[in-house]
């Protein structure tokens, strides 16, 4: 297969945080190339996963590793260390199995492993075990450090909530949250409107119309040409426990699509939420009321299909929004059927609108012939739902 070289190989490098100079991508690849040159192997490809956690991402879910497996004509994969490939034993074994199925072996520069012998495979598994133990130790240290920051009243990281900013800790090292004077009036008005019954959509429209400053570093600011607010941002602001002076136990939005629990906050030894009155905009009781209001007004499209209430298809995708010139869709608002515009999010109650249109239809077209009968007779037979 390879005439000039004993065998062909590919190189694989991974790094979770790009600032780790000691194990940089460049250094990993350099070491792997030197190893291949010393063995007389031909390097036929190099693949990297930069900024990818081995704990949160299995090898088969990474773009670099997937591209490597899609490559042909190699006999070995050279990595710098076992933990560059996987930090879980099961992930390591799955990756090795994928290579075995194509007749390729795995070589680690810093870990002298030989996957062709039972003893070598056993040693490689042991290294993977130690890698998994190290990853768990790192997670434990991070959790402990975050917990200590919260106990000290310091900012533990994550996105800065709207209406707040970070400042140097006056009582020691690190950072603390303080109110942002320029955005606090907007935040207070958003909360007031929500508690008074305004919908998230209405508040979003108001913020955009009034030109309220967007959150620093928000998605809305990063989108090309986007100058307005969106309902997801407003909903997230209203669900942040910092409004009541409470701190999310794990600051920052989770990677999964599920909404974070607004009551998963840092608590004292008695289980009571720790409240920083200097940051509070509303009381904890008002925050609880606000969450009930938001849950009651949640758009049905945000719920799982099994949890949605059925609505009539009458006029759905038929009526157009006069402002946006797009078809209205069916939905519910506070459990009442509505038609809503997917662009501007304005709604129209169907409780009076549907009967009015039915009466108009029957009055103007009811006596017209239809399939041997009349429109009114067919409508009565079909029912109004």
Give an overview in words.
This protein is of the alpha/beta class and 385 residues long. Helix content is 38%, strand content 14%. The protein folds into 3 domains: 8-137, Rossmann fold (3-Layer(aba) Sandwich), CATH 3.40.50; 178-298, Putative Large Serine Recombinase, Chain B, Domain 2 (Hect, E3 ligase catalytic domain fold), CATH 3.90.1750; 308-382, no CATH class. It contains 12 helices and 11 strands. Strands 2-1-3-4 form a 4-stranded parallel sheet, sandwiched between helices. The longest helix has 34 residues, at 118-151.
The number of distinct β-strands equals 11
What string gives the helices and strands in order? EHEHEHHEHEEHHHHHEEEHEEH
Determine the fraction of residues in helical runs and give it as a percent range: 25-40%
CA-to-CA gap between the ends? 70 Å
Structural class: alpha/beta
Q: Specify the CATH homologous superfamily of the largest domain.
A: Resolvase, N-terminal catalytic domain
CATH topology of the largest domain: Rossmann fold
Structurally, the number of domains stands at 3
**Biggest β-sheet: count, sense, barrel?**
4 strands, parallel
Radius of gyration: 30 Å
- Low-confidence segments, given as residue ranges, are 219-225, 251-258, 299-307
Proportion of residues in β-strands: 5-15%
Q: How many DSSP helices?
A: 12
Name of the top-level CATH class of the largest domain: Alpha Beta
Give me the CATH architecture of the largest domain, please.
3-Layer(aba) Sandwich
**Reading side by side through the largest sheet, how are the strands ordered?**
2-1-3-4
CA-based shape: flat
pLDDT averaged residue by residue: 79
